[in-house]
Specification:
heterodimer; A: 115 residues; mainly beta; four-stranded antiparallel β-sheet; 0% helix; globular; B: 116 residues; 52% strand
């Protein structure tokens, strides 16, 4: 079975500063990894995903994440945040054998960008 | 493309009544739809997986008689919360997958249910 740990429940950061949201996963098999963003009272929007290939994945809104197999991590980064990036961010993992079924989510990280 | 809608976006009901939530894939046919529940400041918990034309598969601990799921067409799945109680108040989110080879789920905007 897979599981996801997001170590930081809240991350405050000043506008235009860089940010890293941490995600670690646990799995006995290879995985697909995802980052989603959720704005207040809305559903989830896919930021980026890692399926295979290059370990550095670029997503929308200037975000990127790096898959590190040895550290079982998939941290999300952005070099310069905007006020509009304030939202809840979820890391998720799935088993390639089952595809998009059984998507396991972390508990989320609330990113607050301070003007 | 790959837009998923939910209706209603929010609903308030009295305890003991039933509430139906619709999930539609607007520009694609969804072979599989998923229903999640999200409590305040918590993550999404998968409730059930719904395949068109067949019975839904419920996750452990989810009462199938309480949360009725119908996936009558390739673009519509419904979740009915029967005899709702205040503890059923939550944010319900659906998602859809275009085909079995797809590795991505497309999420709806969610429905806020408040049971008084």
């Amino acid at each position: 079975a897979q599981s996801v740990t997001q170590l930081d429940s809240q991350v405050p950061v000043f506008e235009e500063a860089p940010v890293e949201l941490r995600c670690n996963y646990s799995s006995s098999v290879s995985v697909y990894l995802f980052w989603y963003v959720q704005y207040p009272n809305q559903g989830l929007q896919l930021l980026l995903k890692y399926l295979s290939g290059s370990t550095l994945v670029k997503g929308i809104n200037g975000f990127e994440a790096e898959f590190n197999k040895s550290q079982t991590s998939f941290h999300l980064r952005k070099p310069s945040v905007h006020i509009s990036d304030t939202a809840e961010y979820f890391c998720a993992v799935s088993n390639p054998l089952t595809g998009a079924n059984n998507l396991f989510f972390g508990t989320g990280t609330r990113l607050t960008v301070i003007p | 493309g790959a837009v998923v809608s939910q209706h209603p976006s929010w609903v308030i009901c009295k305890s003991g009544t039933s509430v139906k939530i619709e999930c539609r894939s607007l520009d694609f046919q969804a072979t599989t739809m998923f229903w999640y529940r999200q409590f305040p400041k918590q993550s999404l918990m998968l409730m059930a997986t719904s395949n068109e034309g067949s019975k839904a598969t419920y996750e452990q601990g989810v009462e199938k008689d309480k949360f009725l799921i119908n996936h009558a067409s390739l673009t519509l799945s419904t979740l009915t919360v029967t005899s709702a109680h205040p503890e059923d108040s939550s944010f319900y989110i659906c998602s859809a997958r275009r085909d079995r080879a797809e590795n991505e789920q497309f999420f709806g905007p969610g429905t806020r249910l408040t049971v008084l």
